Each structure stands twice: as structure tokens, then as C-alpha cells.
Amino acid sequence: MTDKSKVKSGFRSKRRDVLRAATAAAVAGISGFPGILRAQTQPPTVKIGLIYPMTGMFAYNGGQSNAGAKLAADEINGRGGIKSLGGAKIELVIGDSQSKPEAAVAEVDKLSEQGISCFLGGYASGIALTATQAAARHKVPFLSDTAVADQITERGLPGIFRFSPGFRVITGAALDALVSINDGAGKPAKTVVLVHEDGAFGSGLAKLLAAELPKRGFEVLEMIAHPTPTRDFTNIGLRLLAAKPDIIIPSSYLNEYTLLARSIHQHKVPMKGIFSVIGGGASNFKFIREYNDAAQYIMDVNHWIDPNKPKAQQFVKALEQRKVDLTYEVMVNYTGLLLIADAIERAGSADRTKISAALESSTFKDHIMPYGPTKFVNGQNQGAQPATTQVQKMNVEVIYPLQYASKKPIFPIPRA
What angle do CA 58, 61, 65 make, to 5 degrees? Predict the structure, then answer.
């Protein structure tokens, strides 16, 4: 005889099991559903790799570069992201080059395997040369920021671009500015000493200047090279004191530039002025704040803003709000990221090949610097040009070209 209570109990048990299974399936479905919704409503990000020296001897410069890129990314994302990609946000991924060329290569290799669509950065010529070569190997476009070695774009590597001007353009602009300023003052300067760091950046500039200055009527008395890093410029200060040049032309990175300028000031080297070409400190507010006496009246041919542009004025205010120094690293990387975002927008894709093609055909005009429309020829931006600045009191003033000038040059420098 069948026990009806056992049958009912078994049925209830099976029913409970079925209900439990159904409930578990429903819970799993509900918990997974928001993920599906997020995938549908939140567009994917576009990853941009930043190759900056966040540690090592160029750490300050890397931090400034990163601040510029972050300001641009916040601006792009704040206005809706990449609209052609459904509002995709820019995601910045930092690769710390540690101020070393070999470390930059390792970071490019690593980030290239992590879905990076494009690289920005390099900072120093030695670092940019190795980083861009690695990027070309991975077929990832790379926009070089402030590095000036002409080889960066002249090696014919695919997908390699430089936003700012290179050696030859900067040297030509520097010579034009120096002649114009000297002529305007009655030609008081006739002799020059070049002081430069001994890497790709300083040595390349010094070689070009030494060849061109005599053609412009200047006698090069001496070329003085120093390694990076160098912590004592006493001997160089004494050599300059003995040489008594009318013009000292330094081409060094920030730390060495600061020490050199202080040594010149401490030794009271008689001169008409310091005329930097891509000087690491002359257009740097950190140097100007900390060593204002040594910084006074220094001129520098460098990457700089157009002070007359409303967008540049807004940029300066934004930096003040973020308590970020106004330096060329910030402005070049800020605009460089805007340029990359414009290329992605026009490409309508995060595909590396399509971004590279969009960069090649760029007509980007949204500059805060005295640049014309961006046009790349063999990777070099033809619209890029430097400005000549001068430290006057606590400000960096543009003094040349005249159409961008905020102040007239003070030259020769007043002697106490």
C-alpha cells in the first residue's frame, strides 16, 4: 500500500527544488542584466598611451606633460567624448619612461599589447627616438610632443608624427629673432659662446648654431658641452667669465639650465644677454619663482602660447585653478591630445591604422600656440613654429615674432 503522505512530501520536495532553481536562475539573470545594460549604454573608452618621464631626472617635466594631457582629456570627456564613437571617453594610460630611452621602449612594448590606440609623449629627443621606433614596430601611431631631434620624423618610420617644430625650424627661427633683436638695439652683440648638454638635443642644436651664426655676423668664441645630469657649473661659469662673450646661448634641460644661469649670475659674467634656444628653464615659472634675479631678462626660443588668443588665456586660467605651472610641456601635450582626439573623431574609429591615416590628413586648427593649421609632411607638422620669450619681472613675455608679442625686448640687459 502506497504511503500518500510520502508521495505528497516527495512532490513538495521536488517542487521546492524546481522553485529554488528557477529563483537562482532569475537572480543570476537579474545580476547579469545591468552589465548588459552598461555595455549598451556606456560606450567603450579609447586608450591613449602617454610615454612620459614620471620618475628620474626629468620627473618634473613628465608631471607637467601629464598635467597638460589630463586637462585636455577632461575637456574632451566633459563635452561628450568622441561623438563619432557614441560618446566614447578618452582614457589615459601612463607609461613611465623613468627618464631612460630603454625604459621607454619597455613601456611602449607593454602598452601596445594592452589595446592602446595611439601614443603621445617622449619629451626628450633621446627618449623619443627609441620610443617612436618601438611604436612603429607595433604599428601604433605615435605623436611626439616636445622632442626636437629631426631624426624622429626623418627615418621614414610609418605612423610617427611630431606636433612641435624640430631642430632646423627652431634654429632658423632663433637666428631670425636674434638678428632682429640685435639689429633693433643697434647691433651691440658680436660674439657668442654656446653652452649645451651633450645628448642628441643639445649637441644637435649646438652644431647647427655653430654653422649658422657666422653667416649672420656673429663670431662663435667657444662651444662648451656638459653631461646630463651635471650638478656643478662653477668651472663653466669661470670659463664664461674669462671668454666675456656678448651673448651666451644655452641649450640644456631644466635642472642644468637653472644651475648654469645661477653660476652666470653669481660670477657676474659681463654680457649683453642670455639668448636660449629651447632652454630648459628660461620659460619655466618654477625657475622664475625660485631664482628670479638669475632669470631676469633671459630670452628663449621655445614652444609657447600665443598670449593674444582667447583660448590661450582660458588655458592659463585653467592651469591657475589646478595650481599647475605654465610651462611648454603642459601646452604642447594639452594641444597634442586635442589633435589626437580630433583625428579619432574624424576616423570614427579606435583602429590604429585609421587614426594614423586621420593624423596624416589633419587640418586641426584649435591651437593655443602661434601655429597655423596642422599639416603633416613626412610626419612633421608644417604649421608648428616657436616663439621668442623674455623673462621680465615675474612674467614670461612673448617678444618675437612681432605679431604675437606681448612686450618689447629689453636688450642689452641693464647693468647694475
Answer: 135
Q: What cell does 127 get?
A: 627618449
Question: For 185, how many CA atoms within 13 A lie in the half-sphere containing its CB?
Answer: 19
Edge-to-edge strands, sheet with 376-377? 90-96, 46-52, 118-121, 142-144, 160-162, 380-381, 376-377
Region 43-59 average pLDDT: 94
Contact (CB, 8 A) for 131 and 105: yes
**For 374-408, how does the pLDDT look when each residue is reduced to its tens digit (9 = 90+)?**
999 999 999 999 999 999 999 999 999 999 999 99
Q: Which amino acid is at 179?
A: V
339 vs 141: CA distance, rounded Å: 13
Q: Cell 668651472 maps to which residue?
A: 235
Confidence grade of residue 416 (pLDDT, cut at 50, 70, 90): low
CB 367 within 8 A of CB 361: no
Residue range 288-309: mean pLDDT, rounded: 94
Task: Look up residue 216 and give its amino acid.
Answer: R
Q: Which three cell numbers stand for residue 70?
A: 589630463
C-alpha separations of 57 from 204, 249, 372 in Å: 21, 22, 33
Alpha-carbon span 221 to 223, nearest angstrom:
7
pLDDT tens sequence across 10-38: 434 444 454 454 444 444 444 444 444 44
Helix (H), strand (E) counts: the chain: 14, 14
CA angle 198, 203, 207 (to 5 degrees): 150
Q: pTM of the predicted model, to two decimals? A: 0.86
Contact 252, 61 (CB under 8 A): no
Confidence of residue 200 (pLDDT cuts 50, 70, 90): confident
Distance of alpha carbon 13 from its chain centroid, rounded?
70
Amino acid letter, 122 = G
Contact 262, 294 (CB under 8 A): yes
How far is residue 266 from each of residues 75, 261, 275, measured CA to CA in Å? 44, 9, 18
| Coil/strand/helix, residue 146 | coil
